[in-house]
Amino acid sequence: MKKYLSVAFLLTASWSYAQQNTPNLFQQNREILENGTLVQKDSLADAVYSGVKNYKTEEEYRVAINMLRTLSQEEKMESVSKIAKKKFPKGSLTRDAFITDVFYNAEGSEAKEKAYNEVIKKWPVKKFSGEELTYDYVLANLAGAFAKEGDAEKATQYLGKMQERFWRGNGYLPVGQTLLAAGDTTAAAPLLKVAMEDAYYYISLPEEQKDNKARFASMGYASSMSAYIGILVNRGSYAEALDLIEKAMTVAPEQADGLSNVYYKSLMGTGRKLEAYNILSKLYAKGQFNVEDDLKKVYTDLNGSMKGYERFNAGLKNELTKSIQEHIKEMTVYKPAPSFELLNLQGEKVSLASLKGKVVVLDFWATWCQPCIRSFPGMQAAQEMYKDDSNVQFLFINTWERDKEYKKNVVSFIERNNYPFEVLYDDQKDPQTGQVMAAKFGVQGIPAKFIIDAEGNIRYFLTGSTPNVDYIKMEMKELIESAKRPYIQSTKS
């Protein structure tokens, strides 16, 4: 008890000081937030909460709410939020709560548009200088709703209201892709072109002018350009497409991989078959087997027949296998996996101990995590590959969800996409540390995958994702088959 009181006293003192230096509050308490015991975290939460009566500014409430959210103190966070919204009805906290609870949860474009108009009326943009991005998020979401319903005119209208150029592509690109998927290239093309040109503007800035915003905007260059050039290629405008691609290669050679698919098609369309063949060979050797029809065509055009193709194809696949084997060496880990017992979608308990004797593949994911979702078709294919192997178990660990209705959202997502996954909810906190399973495994970003051997040891850990189904299948096979074999300590110094 004395130890608990001592900790609480120190935290209260820290909080009192932090009120004078609010921006540094997270930094001052980082050690407790990241590595503290449950007692320390509870004491910090109590100290934060006790300071409510002294708050004078909305910023103090915002910091307190974020701290309590980080500490997983939902009740205290909600209590502080209610006080803040009552005290600052026209403030950004109340606005943000309305956007989250009403706008984002609205079903359909009509309901979203009504909520958006209420946001603009009660919290006009001009009164929140410097917070234009908040409104851009809303506009992009609203435009997306109209695009899904096929209303390109309304979608384009709301996109045109966005103000932050560095982020604009994040609204234009998905709307353009949605319209493109629906076959409306006329409406999609100008949106994709804007997204591409915005990204090009930032990516071509002198290095000394590239701040975080510029780097963020640059990230969308390959995606927007691929989509736009895809339209040009389908229209047969190969020369125009090729000109844009080679212009991109000059200012952003690191984007070459993302542009490979439209690049080889443009080269084929302009008769530069040998260059197209070289790119196709590299794509195939990286596991993009969906390009094989084009590879066969160019191979035949260059060689006069298909003679020797099978040997050539086997060589590319062998090259890929060796590349994956070298790559997974970098993912090697050997340590006992933390024990766990979590509930699945049916409310049944699933523990690591119950799976001893099996190779277990853990995939940490969330419904809001696009890279996680992007890899699911490949993970589904990998699971299907091992459906008859009773010694391999795939578990998809749903973690870090942000919505109170996360269980409902998870079930809906899995059913909507017809994924045959064994999903576990990562919502059981350790009574000593307050950590969920992801933290115990050292997960700092998702998607994160762990391959655990039959003895319960982590053998491989990998992060990131790819939409490449064939590559994921081959990579998972190498990882799983390796985990089936006895661990051999590396002799490298």
TrEMBL record:
Pfam families: AhpC-TSA
Gene3D superfamilies: Glutaredoxin (3.40.30.10), Tetratricopeptide repeat domain (1.25.40.10)
Major localization class: other
Location(s) in or outside the cell: Cell envelope
Keywords, sorted A to Z: Cytochrome c-type biogenesis, Disulfide bond, Redox-active center, Signal
Classification via PROSITE patterns: THIOREDOXIN_2
Residue ranges of every copy of the Thioredoxin domain listed in the record: 331-481
Residues annotated as signal peptide: 1-18
Transmembrane segments: none
SUPFAM superfamilies: Thioredoxin-like
Record's protein name: Redoxin domain-containing protein
